[in-house]
Amino acid sequence: MKITVLDSDALGRDLSLEPLNSVGDVTVYNYSTPDEVIERIADCEVAILNKIKLNESNLGYAKNLKLICIAATGFDNVDVSYCRQHGIAVCNVVGYSTNSVALITMSLALSLVSRMREYNDYVISGEYTKSGIPNRLEPAFHELDGMTWGIVGLGNIGKKVANIASAMGCKVIANKRTPIDGYDIVSIDEIMERSDIISLHTPLNDGTKGLISAEKIAKMTKNAILINVARGAVCDEKALADAIKNDMIGGIGVDVYSTEPFGEDHPFNEIKNYKNVLLTPHNAWGAYEARERLLLGIVENIKAFQKGEKRCRVDL
Predict the structure, then answer these.
(1) Among 95, 112, 116, 189, which residue has the fewest nearby CB atoms (within 10 Å)?
(2) Domains of the chain listed by start with CATH number
(3) Catalytic residue list contains 282
(4) Are 37 and 49 in contact (CB under 8 A)?
(5) Which residues of the chain have a pLDDT value below 50?
(6) Is 231 an annotated catalytic residue?
(7) Global pTM?
């Protein structure tokens, strides 16, 4: 099969794509502009992409396209309805990034709770050396034991974070459409009102877009921390920035944005230097081991398709 990789840079330049050669004739592009996408999918049979958008505006030119492999779990960048109507199979990869996203979720939360950025700045600025005092305990930080951790979205990642938070002494509450045995399932409002830490792990869809609104953010306690490793558009990003500027909440850790990378007019530019703000470049999913699993998952999806089997299909 003729396979085209549209944005290999999004998978990391350190990852070898050699395993793809076992399933077809592979052409790799580091990145593709919208115009280049039209040209590059024109005669391929399989398109592999991470963040590139595929929809009616470009898919109409792909006369030989049989399969789209999304190098991710989320698939909101592909018009699945169009693909379904035109007989194009669409696959994602599930579960590859659970450990990686949980790691970054905890890293963001623990760094904010322990005020790590502020203590690190104190040392590297030279103030610690000049002080002559062997320790510094301001600003005060608090133990996780006894805190309430609210989780929005209780899939594989949410459950992993719940297990780690519980092991560290947190009381875990969660929001999910359908109750799950063994978890304290509550409303979004209760999550916002009760939680010391809130982490978001829900997919982006019509029901979750703008879920964390200005109204919801206003329900958070003054010292609460919000971590978004889901999708940027799940939150009202301006409302989050305003909450930080107005000292309404304790801090935010964000790895995802409504526009990636975000531009100079994005509201987070106004708060990026605040000590209670941590912003990472949508890397939570991408531990090296996770990316290896992702690539192997794509290979297995292509093999299954070639055999007429259905694996990780999101168009069915």
Answers:
(1) 189
(2) 2-96+288-306 (3.40.50.720), 98-279 (3.40.50.720)
(3) yes
(4) no
(5) none
(6) yes
(7) 0.92
